[in-house]
Amino acid sequence: MYDSIQLLTMEKTILITGGAGFIGSHVVRLFVNKYPDYHIVNLDALTYAGNLENLKDVADAPNYTFVKGDITDEEFIPQLFEKYDFDGVIHLAAESHVDRSISDPLAFIRTNVFGTANLLNAAKEAWKGKMEGKRFYHISTDEVYGSLGKEGYFTEETPYDPRSPYSASKASADHFVRAYYHTYGLPVLISNCSNNYGSHHFPEKLIPLCINNIRYNRPLPVYGKGENVRDWLWVDDHAAAIDIIFHQGKIGETYNIGGHNEWTNIRLIEKLCEIMDRKLGRESGESAKLITFVKDRAGHDLRYAIDSSKLQRELGWQPSITFEEGLEKTVDWYLENQEWLDNVINGDYQNYYEKQYSEREKS
Ligand code: NAD
Ligand code: TYD
Which ligand is located closest to the Cα atom of residue 203? Predict the structure, then answer.
């Protein structure tokens, strides 16, 4: 276990929030393994989306500490900053699912807006008079830019136009991050990334939901006509971008992250069906019979597409694998980790699923 002698010899202490979630667990793993002289403190409230199973391979690493706690807690967060004297913060903790934000918007305001402001405030107080070398990095989403038509891309200059309670809460958090930079000189960074996919993705989201439903021969619920477009990025490529931006990004700047990989939902689901037919030894076309068009999501954004040329040009980041490779690896991971999925989808998630999808009769 981590002890005070090691603390003294470690170069930096970094707070990662939301590290038990999908993207956060990939970021924690990368930092714990790549930077043995950093002490990584993972703060997570372990909501329905947080799962310590995601990090069992690094749980006993000497440079890793897990802290269970809530980013909205006004007493606890300043105490945590005092206890650990953080050099940097990588903030991922959030409510992250658009459909849940439609049924419970206030939970998103509490966590994503107030929680972020609470962290900013704690950093401002703890770092007073010693901001040099510190970094407060907020992980945001391309959804803050709104919805594109058939043409064009989101750049860092695209005006904010959030349209769901989720994206509005993330946009608001981004504004607070910039306000703390301009008003208090807090050394901040923001990145806005497109949709991620890969292992440990909670099965309320499209790709793992479809993999799980195909496996159990359950309907594949396609919202509306399935013509909405998302720009998919391999989660480890996002984690690699976060590493680069945290270390080399210019304070006060924003970086867009995306892999130029646009897919309509229906094409993506058909592709998943093909892969699953092959992996499960089913006849070609069998899984696609599960495709079921259902009532559209309220305010469903048509298209997201990221221009990440600034990040590529200025910091030299590139996606490392193709979507075809990434999807194969993702499907393999879910098929090999059925126990992880079974543990995640029992109990509360089952109730969420029944409620969410029974209200969407076939269209
Ligand atoms: P996730 O829902 O899988 O994980 C969120 C984590 O935050 C969970 O471990 C949860 O327990 C924790 N958490 C929630 N509320 C908390 C609170 N009040 N205090 C402490 N911890 C709390 O989310 P994700 O998909 O991994 O997304 C991580 C971040 O990346 C989010 O900020 C999200 O907005 C952003 N993002 C996600 C995507 C994507 O495609 N998933 C794309 C771009 C940006
Ligand atoms: P999702 O994974 O929820 O991510 P986001 O809404 O943040 O982009 O959804 C991806 C796309 O898939 C989005 O256009 C909504 C659609 N979708 C469905 O068609 N059916 C589903 O059951 C879900 C969860 C999503």
Answer: 2
